[in-house]
Amino acid sequence: MTLQQTSAPAIPRSGRRHDRQRFWQEVAMIAPAVLLLATFLITPFLLSFWTAMTNQPLVPRPTPVRFVGLLNFQRVFTDPLFWTSLWNVTRFTVWVLPVQCGLAFLTALLLHQKLPMRNLLRGMFFLPAITSMVVVCVIWGTLFQYPSGPLNQIVGFLSAGAIQPIDWLGDPNWAMFSIVLLSAWQAYGFQMIIYLAGLQGIPEELYDAARIDGASALRRFWHVTMPGLRPTHVFVLVITTIQAFKLYTQVAILTQGGPKESTETVVHYMVRAGFEEQKLGYASAVSVILFVIVLLIALLQRKLLRRFDV
Amino acid sequence: MSDLVLSQPAPLAISRGNSKTGLRIVQTVCIFIIALVMISPLFMLLIASLKDDRFRILADMGSFRAFWVNDPTLSNYREIANFSGELAYGRYLFNSLVILVVTVVSGLIINSMAGFVLAWGSLRGKAILLALVVALYVIPQESIIMPLVVMMSRAGLTDTFAVQILPWVASPLYVFLFYQFFAQLPKELYEAAEMDGASIFRIYRSIYMPLSLPALATVSILMGIESWNQYLWPTLVTQTDYARPIAVAIATFFGQDSIYWDRAMAASVLMMIPVLILYLAFQRWFVSSFVGSAVKG
Predict the structure, then answer these.
(1) Among A70, A136, A145, B291, which residue carries the largest CB count within 10 Å?
(2) Quick check: A36 and B110 CB within 8 A?
(3) Is any Cβ of chain A less than 8 angstroms from the Cβ of B158?
(4) What does A128-166 look like in DSSP terms, one character per residue?
(5) CA separation (Å) from A134 to A138, A252, A263, B248?
């Protein structure tokens, strides 16, 4: 930029041509992304607000689409099943957060050491994260077999037969917990990578200083590692929460929201309304609500991060 | 740069004083055992896929036989690896691969170009565009999917490859990741090249791209996994075999009265191979610090 300013007066015409050329080159480079985002993200996003206020069906009908105002939202909020689904994802989130983030944090601590074959170990721990949720459902579908699947065998063995076989996916009291187990197992790898990054970001000098001051390993962990990871903790908790609220695939494949609606989730509810009942306007209202939830969580993250002065 | 980070001894979080090699070995063995336990379900999957009898698979599951196969056979794979008919998993795998490769390659080019202009371009309104990208990142895929399905079916794109690729090529997250990566490279690099009369596209292609292997690898892995694992979207926009990806096909096993676990497991193993290769190919550059610093913003 400084170059242009100094050279512009000397050769004004070619300089201007250069500027124009550069302008168009930049536009050409950014245009594909802008056009794609405008078409496939911004347009449907804005459309969802409009569709949510109409009675549009999924398949076009001869009858004209009517503007119905906030009627869809009113219907969503008075449907007990919607509240059940919201309660279920909240329950799921509360359970999956400690399991998934705890697993990620512990494995990251294990890997963040001078170890032989560190990359291999990291790859092994990351393996579930690259496994497709559909494949995870195949695996855990067999592990959860009732009454004599592997998990029931293990539970029976550990309790010396005291605990009766559990119908993991068929018992309304257990179904969501089972979904929590397989979800945490599948997804912890990503959070582990983020924790590893956070651990790498803590300056080694802090540990040296603490060591010189005679701090024990436990105290170093508590007074150096934990404060250094504060922004990482916030970030991990927030993305895990957002991810949890979007729970869909495993439920759609393994339980279809059952038994007795104990695993019905907001996204599953939305897809059912939109594609089984063909009520596009209604489903769009649910998608707007989902967006608001995610937005609130993201805003909370920003607020928390600012408090920690990051 | 990344190789440097990885080859350096990692700063220790908890224990540093353990210079005794004996303790180090015990520690490593323990971590290996934990890792093996974590991935044991995947190992079970592989073993089970080599067993012929689907009822024996379930019976074996509860014991140590789940980790052992006496007479391994590829018959399950042979049953499903067709390119037409009911069990056309060869075709589904191929479909998914086409979608993955096109999405990742075009995504790398398009997102990195946009990120580069945002980092080093002189467009007016650049700051606004950047803020917009960050804001768009908040919108979850799930909340645009309803209108998007209608848009796509009106455009006649249902049941095509395009419908599974186009919407997910440009992504605010990856534009931002590239922007952050380019912006942290030294300014002198850009100024020197500009002084030599290189155009911004040349600077991007010949100077910055070769330097951005860590970013390219990270985005490849993230985009690849994302594309490979898409489930909700393709169930909504594919109806026939023509462009059906393998994830959707495997899920249909669950719709049957009696699940053919043997075939489902063979298909699952097939599905794991490409992403595993992708990860192994790029993991050297999959620098965790890059992901970490980028997502904090």
Answers:
(1) A136
(2) yes
(3) no
(4) HHHS-HHHHHHHHHHHT-TTTSHHHHHHHHHTTT-SPPP
(5) 6, 10, 17, 8
Residue B56, token pair as written in the block: 């024996």
Q: Helix, strand or coil for residue A27?
A: helix
* pLDDT > 80? residue A223: yes
Interface of B with A in 191-210 (CB under 8 A): 191, 194-195, 199-201, 204
Query: How far are the Cα atoms of A138, A163, B146, B227 from residue A52, in angstroms, in the given order?
Result: 36, 48, 10, 28
Burial of B102 (0-12, 13-18, 19+ CB in 10 A): middle
Instruction: Compute the mean pLDDT over every residue in chain A, rounded to the nearest whole number.
Output: 86
Res. A54: pLDDT tops 50: yes
Element (H, E) at A2: helix A2-7
* CA-to-CA dists, residue B34 to A109, A125, A202, angstroms: 13, 9, 26
Closest alpha carbon to B11 in A189, A118, A121, A102: A118
Assigned token pair, B134: 């960050």
Residue type, A260: K
Q: B170 to chain A nearest CA, in Å?
A: 5
CA A93 to chain centre: 11
User: A150, A269 in Cβ contact below 8 A?
Assistant: no
Residue type, B70: N
Provide the b/e sequence for A256-270 (b: ≥16 CB within 10 Å).
Answer: ebebebbbbbbbbbb
Rounded distance between C-alpha atoms, residue B133 and residue B183, angstroms: 15
Residue A256 clears pLDDT 50, i.e. is over it: yes
CB atoms within 10 A of CB A35: 12
Residue B291's pLDDT is: 52
CA gyration radius, chain A:
26
AA letter at B233 = W
pLDDT tens across B12-27, in order?
444 444 457 788 888 8
**CB–CB contact A113 B264 (8 Å):** no
Residue B230, token pair as written in the block? 């898409």
Task: Compute the distance between CA of residue A21 and CA of residue B3 in angstroms, rounded to an integer.
Answer: 38
User: Which residues of chain B, if any, have pLDDT below 70?
Assistant: 1-19, 62, 287-297
Distance (Å, whole) CA B89 – CA A142:
21
8-state DSSP, B62: T
- Give the pair of three-digit tokens for residue B31: 């971590």
Q: Does B16 touch chain A (CB under 8 A)?
A: yes
Report d(CA B275, CA B140) in Å as an integer. 24
pTM: 0.86
Whether B161 and chain A come into contact, CB under 8 Å, resolves to no
